[in-house]
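Kindly inspect the following:
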Amino acid sequence: HSVAISGNYAIVGADEEDEDANEENTLYVAGAAYIFEQSEPAVIIEDKTIPVEFGLQNAYPNPFNPSVTLPYRLLNNTQTILQIFDLRGQLIETLYNAYQSAGKYSVIWQPANISSGVYIVRLQSGNDIAMQKIVYVK
């Protein structure tokens, strides 16, 4: 159950009767109110059920412009790092570096000031590491 949100926002909970909800941070979808906070970049909590495998799912669209969605699955509650590297191994951007619970997530990345080309997405969760190529076209 994912929710597409324009702008840089992260969903942090869902509750129809949330007392903290206000017009600036509430998205109403099919009778439910999704509460979100500003975040860079957007991290969307898709599903808190524990997946059967760790890793990056297929990025879409790929090739991409202006943004790409990077879905991933975590098996454990642990420190999670999601980064973008160029083909020389130079770090371009750290998209996420914080503790995350097991579940299914997506990060929407909209790069700024980079050249067209192939980039590597690197996901690290504890001792588990996954990598994937993505292509940015201008």
User: Anything to note?
Assistant: Residues 1-39 have pLDDT under 50 and may be disordered. Residues 37 and 130 are 27 Å apart (CA to CA).
